[in-house]
Amino acid sequence: MNTACTPTDPLVLYGQTFHSRLLLGTARYPSPATLEASVQRARPAMLTASLRRQQVVGHSAGNGFWELLRKLDVQVLPNTAGCHSVQEAITTAHMAREVFATPWIKLELIGDDYTLQPDTLNLVEVASRLIKDGFQVLPYCTEDLVLCQRLVDVGCQAVMPWAAPIGTGKGPVNPYALRMLRERLSVPMIVDAGLGLPSHACQVMEWGFDGVLLNTAVALAQDPV
Which of 39, 48, 89, 128 is the most exposed place for a label (fewest CB within 10 A)? Predict the structure, then answer.
């Protein structure tokens, strides 16, 4: 049964209230200044950030990125982007908790490098272990009903099904499955990945989803601000 809140209600995730239904990624912006301006204009509920990005850019640039996140004063949602194994995702999540000083984690476990499709066979195991370790897990998943139900069963208080593969901007490729998912599960659901147009975001919100996560559609827009 769909018991999703209305768009005028605040978004509540793991007992924490947010006054925006937009989550925003921090990758692929033309410059840190553009990212900062975009966040200030959007005032999203959360900003996703990759621990791997921190590692790759080096200590000086990484510290600068972290300082920018702190300056923006928006809840940071670290992610495990790029992880392909159970242990890799768990290790990265624990490192992210130390670096970002938060129990929040956007769990990404990649099963296919071409589409960046989640590894649905191992995702539930990782989510279960992280929840037992005290994390507030937001799992990036497909629109598969059984998968999402299993994630809820192990303690996920929200799920993040994709609309389409990451970065494609195709919009919802399986509307029936997404709408069925919304009808059957009552936990908060944030559509993550594949939204390329404002109309895509409006569409899933009209179906009763609780929020959207955008990155490529904003970062690579002609005017991200």
Answer: 128
